[in-house]
Amino acid sequence: MKYLNIQDTDSTLTALLYEVTATQTEVVVTRDGIPVARIVPWQAKQTSTHHYPLRGLPIVIAEDFDESMPELWEALGE
Description:
Layout: E1 2-5, H1 6-23, E2 27-31, E3 34-39, H2 70-77
Parallel strand pairs: 1-2
Antiparallel strand pairs: 2-3
């Protein structure tokens, strides 16, 4: 990790971004010795199957799926 004073970033920002990209290390920008920002390399989001946990599983539909359910309607009517 590299520390750089905020006054030094004005003239070297482009070179600094190239360095961060090339080395894949972060740079902490400071003001009066106090960290105020971090420049980190970009990381593309990884596609994940966690959003679709049932993907690829077989679909099974019961034979009586579309038949009426009189006991349900009776329970709702009470």
